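Memo to structure team: turn this sequence into structure tokens by end of day. - J.P.
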Amino acid sequence: MKLDILAITAHPDDVELCCAGTLMKHIDLGYSVGLVELTEGELGTRGNAPLRLKEARAAADVMGIVVRENLGLPDGFFENNRESQLAIARMVRKYKPEIVIANAVIDRHPDHGRAAKLTSDACFIAGLVKVPTELDGNRQEAWRPKAIYHIIQDYKLQPDICVDVTPYMEKRMKAIRCFGSQFYNPNSTEPESSISGKEFLDVIMAAARNFGRMIGVEFGEAFTVQRPVGVPDLIKLN
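Reply from structure team:
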């Protein structure tokens, strides 16, 4: 199954918190979208791996995404090595995306920046014809995405691209709330975390408002890129 966009991120909920609106918008535009997480987020302060995977499936249903895979790399301890690069390269070659969306290039959580570099390196490796990979006993063809866009997470990096997601903001928040183990719950007996406070989802909304304001809309989602973005028509940029 070929996809137009493949989001490859470190943890379940990275996509929902940062670019779910963009993905839903592109689905409505007729593009095919899939998700791959590197880890099950098992080291998160709250919840556990089985619960987070269940929440991830529920969020995918909200977003209308039918492809969601998890590589099962060790949360907090995955490395940018040959094994990890090949695991991601197999996904890139399996789905042949035109675009890959990856984690923030630098962030408070060390997994995010490490995943960003790992994903970028793996996408390059996936395009090398002399690097063999197999999936289900079949040799895969080389494939390299046309571009990699990095989400902006906890650190407020300067965006290179902002996408208007105003019509999708309510649905995006619904997808985020599927991860109930991670966010504010007055009845929870689990330890507090950096994202479990009552104000956290307000912060997410405020960030989207700020990115939207940058491009003259109500809500936006922002990305950074490592190379200039080619555009066919300057007039259509705003």
